Amino acid sequence: MIIGTPKEIKNHEYRVGLTPESASELVAHGHQVLVETDAGRGIGALDEAYVAAGATIVGTAEEIFEKCEMVVKVKEPQAVERAMLREGQILYTYLHLAPDPEQTKDLIKSKAVCIAYETVTDNMGGLPLLKPMSQVAGRMSVQAGAAALEKAHGGRGVLLGGVPGVAPGKVVVIGGGVVGFNAAQMAIGLHADVTILDRNPNTLEKLENHFESSAKVIYSTKAALENLVKEADLVIGAVLIPGAAAPKLVTREMLGTMQDGAVIVDVAIDQGGCFETSKATTHADPTYVVDGVVHYCVANMPGGVARTSTYALNNVTLPLAVEIANKGWKDALKADPHLANGLNVWNGQITCEPVARDLGLDYVPVEDALNS
User: Fold this and answer.
1) Marked catalytic residue, from 31, 96, 295, 338
2) Catalytic residue at 270?
3) Are the C-beta atoms of 264 and 294 separated by less than 8 Å?
4) What is the CATH code for 133-299?
5) Catalytic residue among 100, 106, 266, 270
6) Can 96 be counted among the known catalytic residues?
7) What is the predicted pLDDT for the residue at 122?
């Protein structure tokens, strides 16, 4: 199979779909790998490294999309990239379609085979291709929030860890999954006053057992959330419903009760965000203020630590890329029902039920695509 990786073009996105090591692995399996020139420069992987790995460097993204049977990316294809997709071509990347009707419409029109990292599952009910980026984003959320709390950045002027004689900052983490767990770890490491909200009894027990007295673990209700955000210095949105748009848990009314200069970091922004006032921002212009509250809603947070993120991502995406390349997408998905859960768009139809439901579109079961 001919497999290609274009240079990412989303604002301040420095990750790359395939590292030189990943390219080498695919070549070792007998596949041809094309890489757009400078695609890996953002992680310090120069074209020479790809050539040494057996890949071929091409000059433009147009060549990648024209020649390749499978395109491996990191972020969702931008409009100019979507226009280059063709019928039957495999797109293997993050998509986050539920809050993005324009992208969904273009992918339907392309009739490409679109496999989304974020809906691939595993035997334990987890999301293994999303997990490493959730770990990165959870940890970054505290770094970003701490910086935004500085007075020069519009925040309250609070040091999360406090100092002797001065109380630490109050951090509220909404959601105790991978993002929330990692955010809490980082905030606790800074000696902040941390509260984690979740509704899953098993998650609550796991968090309580792990953090013990280092964090307060609370069952999430509307009343609990309302009370906690009033006093919070930093609120981190870490809510995820796989494939679906994130619920708007913090309303504009709640926002109005927060302290001036408090900060919210919406890690759920890829799925539309869990704050009513959230809108996607970029690393170039990461924050804005609503009702005196600083909002950090960067939609590709892990792109800010591109090298760490790329290698963590390739560790989990490469084995499945090899399977798709070796067997063809249909046989690979038939052999692995967890990979099959990643199929979001096929032949101009939506094959991910949460996406279809949230966008009001017709849903076609994955089985129909595999048995066609």
Assistant:
1) 96
2) yes
3) yes
4) 3.40.50.720
5) 270
6) yes
7) 96
